[in-house]
Amino acid sequence: MGLRLVAEPVPGLPEIEPGDDLAAAIASAAAAAGMPIDAETVVVIAQKVVSKEERRLVALETVTPTPDARELAIQTDKDPRVVQLVLDESEEIIRAAPGVLIARTRTGLVCANAGIDRSNLPADDMACLLPTDADASARRLRGGLRERIGSPPAVVVSDSFGRPWRLGQVDVAIGCAGLAPLDDRRGSVDAVGRELSATIDAAADAAAAAAALVRSKSGREAVVLVRGLARYVTPEDGPGAAAIVRPRAEDLFL
Amino acid sequence: MGLRLVAEPVPGLPEIEPGDDLAAAIASAAAAAGMPIDAETVVVIAQKVVSKEERRLVALETVTPTPDARELAIQTDKDPRVVQLVLDESEEIIRAAPGVLIARTRTGLVCANAGIDRSNLPADDMACLLPTDADASARRLRGGLRERIGSPPAVVVSDSFGRPWRLGQVDVAIGCAGLAPLDDRRGSVDAVGRELSATIDAAADAAAAAAALVRSKSGREAVVLVRGLARYVTPEDGPGAAAIVRPRAEDLFL
User: Fold this and answer.
1) For A201, which of A73, A127, A183, B131 could close a Cys bridge (C-beta 3.0–4.6 Å)?
2) B50-87 burial, b for 16+ CB within 10 Å, e for fewer?
3) Which residues of A touch B252 (CB under 8 A)?
4) Is the pTM of this model over 0.90?
5) What is the ipTM of this complex?
6) A179-208: burial string, b at 16+ Cβ within 10 Å, e else
7) What is the spatial distance between Cα A168 and Cα B241, in angstroms, rounded to a whole number?
């Protein structure tokens, strides 16, 4: 029999406030919805609620932009306080133009505004940063779910990224635990015995993309359960999404 | 009730030979497997079988490389005949290095070797090109499925692409019909009434990525049915995956 992937959002997750216990909230909401979480379930969690739990919200009035940030803010037509946060979170600015600020974060993610955004926040004058280490977040949430459920599901922390050359955003895994981030099939053979070339699948990114298809973007469906990915699930936490970050020296495209 | 995405490969698809009727083969295999295809089903088809049906196989002995191709072959450590095919299919070479040849195809896809590959082919000395116009392929297959099934499902032609900055490949839609390639949510509001920024989801790419998670890479499971994406399905063929290609002048990243 072939594989069968099923992805469904967990309804009824409460609004997460800084310092809440997100794992407990997920376990409760899934139980209340009659959606069992087991060791072969992949729990895909939108970055925003993880950041909220981890107190990664910043009141913009507390940010004093440096002259560098002010200059970049003029160049990009952005709020200088947000630009300051982007600079604080980044190791490199990839591209700056009116309306555009692409950065490489300290964990190697290349995305708009270093992943900082301002939607779905409790107050207007606020910004949400990415988790400091989303792999650590995934491991922690996996541990929290194991405590409450008895078995450790796989956990993916996802975010929506734009891409070069292609319009639109797709969700990718910025953190994961208990899931192979990359599925390396090099050395295996095709149906006629020829060795497959360059076949490393970014399984964790694909799981994040699949989950996004069923999640409403209103911010009320932050958690999606994906089943049927047992072949990518691992008992150990594994290397996390950090393994997906392409070493800069090896970038084949740029 | 929330959405529910289900993705399953269609078992028993026969090996597709040049000139075969792929739509008929898909309809038969799905019927034999008891997998109904209806107007809300997204039929995700791996590019390779579409190319085979469309006679996009080239015997390498028929290719005579130009001096330019020979030079590029030395630089990239590749077969000069394959490099010649890459040049023929491309409007621009993005990157050439030992083992690496990234090109922009005539339809605007940026990928390794202009999408040409040599796995899962009937003979050793052969290469498979991308469909000339994968959106036209998707429309044609959609029409063929409508004839056999009575209602037109959505069709995605998918291929595995590498990405800048991130390791591993994910599947993307190189062609589609009956599916919104981009889901534009700009102007809609988040849960607290703030306008969502930059939220155009590349729905067709995400559908392709989800399908790849359940497809074996042996080449024997070229077709995956994805259900639960009614919100992206359209009665008309629509603009196709060409709409996902970012106009070069607008590339924010590079």
Assistant:
1) A183
2) bbbbbebbbebeebebeeebeebbeebebbbbbbbbbb
3) 95, 97, 100, 102, 112, 162
4) yes
5) 0.94
6) bbbbbebeeeebeeeeebeebbbbbbbbbb
7) 11
Which tokens hold the place of B101? 């040849």
pLDDT, tens only, B125-152:
999 999 999 999 999 999 999 999 999 9
B67 touches chain A (CB under 8 A): no
Q: How far is CA A160 from CA A109, A208, A243, B123, in A?
A: 12, 9, 18, 41
d(CA B104, CA B93): 6
With an 8 Å Cβ cutoff, are A160 and B199 in contact?
yes
From B179, B176, B106, B182, select the one nearest B139 (Cα to Cα): B176
Q: Under a CB-based contact definition with an 8 Å cutoff, are residues B57 and B127 in contact? A: yes
Closest listed residue to residue B226, CA positions, set A6, A228, A42: A6
Please name the residue of chain A whose CA is at the shortest distance from the CA of residue B165: A246
What residue has token string 């047992």?
A230
* Distance in angstroms (rounded) separating the CA atoms of residues A74 and A96: 10
User: By the 8 A CB rule, do B32 and A251 touch?
Assistant: no
Residues of B in contact with A210 (CB under 8 A): 5, 7, 206, 209-210, 213
Residue among B171, B229, B252 whose CB faces A162 most closely: B252
Q: Strand B223-227 to strand B42-46: parallel, antiparallel, or no bridges (unpaired)?
A: antiparallel
A165 vs B: CB within 8 A: yes
Tokens representing residue A31 in the block: 């139980």
> Given A11, A203, A252, which is nearest B100 (Cβ)?
A252
- Residue recorded with tokens 């008929």: B24
pLDDT tens column, B210-238: 999 998 766 568 999 999 999 999 999 99
Instruction: Work out the burial of residue A248: count CB atoms within 10 Å of its CB; fewer than 13 is exposed, 13-18 middle, 19 or more buried.
Output: exposed
- Strand bridging mode B154-161 / B42-46: parallel
- The CA-based angle A78-B186-A209, given to 5 degrees, is 100
> Count of CB contacts below 8 A, A vs B?
266
Residue B78: beta bridge partners?
Answer: none
**Residue A201 backbone phi and psi in degrees, to 5:** -90, 135
